[in-house]
Amino acid sequence: MSKTEIKKIIVNSKKEVIHKIVREILVLFQINTADEIVDIYDFDSLEISNSIVDGSCLSVTTSILLKNDKLSKNMEKTSLADIDENPRAAVNRLIKWNLYYLFTEVFGKTTAPWGILHGVRPTKIVHRYIERGLHKSEIIRKLIDNYAVVREKALLLADIAYRQLPIMATTDQSTISIYIGIPFCLSRCLYCSFPSNILPDNNTLKIFMDTLYQEIVSIKKIIEQYKLKVQAIYIGGGTPTSLPEEEFYNLLCAVNNLKTRETIEFTVEAGRPDSITAAKITAMEQFKVTRISVNPQTMQEKTLQVIGRKHTPADIITVYNKIRAVSRAKINMDLILGLPGESVEDVRDTLNKVTALNPDDITVHALAIKKGSYLKLHQSDINLPSDPVVCQMAEITQLILQKNSYIPYYLYRQGYMSGQLENIGYCKKDAASIYNIQIMSERQTILGIGGNASTKIVAPSGTYLKTLFNPKDLKTYLENADKYIRKRASLMEEVYGK
After folding, report:
1. Cβ–Cβ contacts within 10 Å for residue 430, how many?
2. Are strands 265-271 and 423-427 parallel, antiparallel or unpaired?
3. DSSP 324-340
4. N or C end of the chain: which has fewer CB within 10 A?
5. What is d(CA 407, CA 415) in angstroms, rounded to the nearest whole number?
6. pTM for the full model?
7. What is the pLDDT of residue 187?
8. What residues of the chain score a pLDDT lower than 70?
9. DSSP assignment of 43-109
10. CA 110 to CA 262: how far, in whole Å?
11. Are the CB atoms for 220 and 257 separated by under 8 Å?
12. Could you tell me the maximum CA-CA distance found in the chain, to the nearest angstrom?
């Protein structure tokens, strides 16, 4: 589907959520507004209006008026909410659904496997349906009818949501997980939008680690005060193993103090092979790390050079085997579909090489083009596979992983993903990451410390979250850590002190 240029867009609402819905649909249909001057516009204006009838059955009528020098086209669509649907959520969904329908009629069929389902955590919708007592077949029908999800994705989403139930059932208000953010890397990747920093000088690093240890002490007090059970601990980043060996050892030692008798999963993002040493592997085994991520992203050397990874496919295999020789931890490996210059055959080759290593868990990401990344700034100069090609890559990936006994167990989506696809975690039997499921379900309190870490405190009723986001910027984090420590303690008192 080619891009459409529209000079002016008018929306008859001042509500930000309505404008957000419109933007999502515009991106989906590759409709550009006049952010930059172009030579030719397909339409001079697009006017969008919505009317809501909140009677015995809530309905939304959406109208669009398209104009250019040759025509004026007016269309409308009316849709009804489900009887048991939350009214506010229903209005937003119906506006999005109506726009999707109308734009399909006007601009031609779009290849959108997820339809209007744009949220990061689509499994949450399925979990709500399950709690309401809906049968699996009915849930699949609702995903197709209410969200325009294609049947294949609806089946995938439902299967994953049901697989997650046993792990989700292991939590209660006193059971939490902990995330520790180490915002440093040895170099910055082409596609990276995370607020990671190149490993700083020794003085700055010491200040960061001292600040982080203050946060760890504050979390320890919270655990003891509310008699909390820590189910999973996750050290992410950035690349935590980019720390020097002594600092990495000290970090594991400090984090080890946060464990309780109930801690059954301890993950470290080892990320890049060039950041992993024998001493770090030994330290992870000493402190009983149960899950280590070694992330090749691709096994194509030409691509690794393009995206700024300072290692080779051979380095990945060497480090993987070194970890297997020393550690009893499960190993996760991350891959990305849609990287610059890659073909379907490149992806097939990568999958064959990775599955030959037999990792316990493989997470497959569709490339997301995000603000703040070099890729976003220079997208027009970089050769990226087309959306149809990326979809072929995803099909090949699924077939190879299923053939090698990997099953999908968690899923999330991001904006601006290649092929309008998703990120899927695949694992061997009994190798699912507890943390990944809990963080995506948002049913468990997760306390975040360190750079760009987020805290989400789940209320006893499960009906709302209290959130706190540590600063993305390193300098701001270091200068304001005390304030965030106090704020986290206050939020915990508000929810857990009752």
Report:
1. 7
2. unpaired
3. HHH--SEEEEEEEES-T
4. C
5. 24
6. 0.91
7. 77
8. 1-2, 34-39, 109-111, 190-191, 193-196, 370-381
9. EEEEEEEEEEE-SSS-EEEEEEEEE-SS-EEEEEEEEE--TTS-HHHHHHHHHHHHHHHHHHHHH--
10. 48
11. yes
12. 73
